[in-house]
Amino acid sequence: MTNALAQRVVVLDGGMSTALELAGHDLSDSLWSGRLLLTDPDAVRDAHLAFYRAGAEVAITASYQVTYPGFARAGISADETARLLKASVGLARSAASEVDGPRWVAASVGPYGAMLADGSEYRGRYGLSQQELVDFHRPRIETLAEASPDVLAVETIPDVDEATAVLEVVRGSGVPVWLSYSIRGDRTCAGQSLEEAFAVAEGIDEVIAVGVNCCPPEDVAHAVDVAGKTGLPVVVYPNSGEEWDAGERAWTGDGTGFAALAGEWTGRGARLVGGCCRTGPDAIEVLAKALAA
What we know:
This protein is of the alpha/beta class and 293 residues long. It has helices at residues 2-7, 16-22, 34-39, 41-54, 68-73, 78-96, 112-116, 130-146, 160-170, 194-199, 220-228, 262-268, 281-292, and strands at 10-11, 58-60, 104-109, 151-157, 177-181, 183-184, 187-188, 207-213, 234-237, 243-245, 250-252, 270-273.
């Protein structure tokens, strides 16, 4: 993937949960899409395949919500959790074998807050020490690394403290990593400057890209400018731009409109571009065609 990024823009997939919901799956469980790794792995594989066929070159695994303590609370053993983490990579690999051209697998490493299933990944500052965050992330990262993904997608990280902890785990491992923050406006969700946020990745050989995800599309351009100052390729995969209308209990807005902004992002230096929440295969198809044009 590193060689490809030096030459061109690489298209990421969209929201795994969105693709699964569009296929009729109920993700209201606290284990979210990770539950289907246990109950319906073929559905996960099919979602990856739909994104690949839509033009995505990178599949992000369904391991975002899969953690040892979170699954233990649901009665799932550590051995079974390890199997599911590795299976998440295998399912994406299997889907990649069904399409032509280069395809990569990014193993998702979600934030601590994702395990809590209470929106904490959009706040950060969990009240944990740096060592506690390291101890939380290390087992899952080591298990995913054993499955040999092309890259670890350290994503939706809300604050610099957690990013620093994750990077401590991956430093010296030799496993490629991208680091992607959740942001609001020109700061991390925890309120730190983006300059501070991206600076923690400098000098760590394993980091191949930095950027943002799970944010409004209008926040991306500035983040690309700041991330680009690190000299690393920039990764961006924002939400669709739709907004939740609580009164009507429905999403409003154009779910593919974010693709119209992709040319600006790549013009500013983004090299890994995809979608996050509310971006299904159709949205990625629009994005891929827009970038190709």
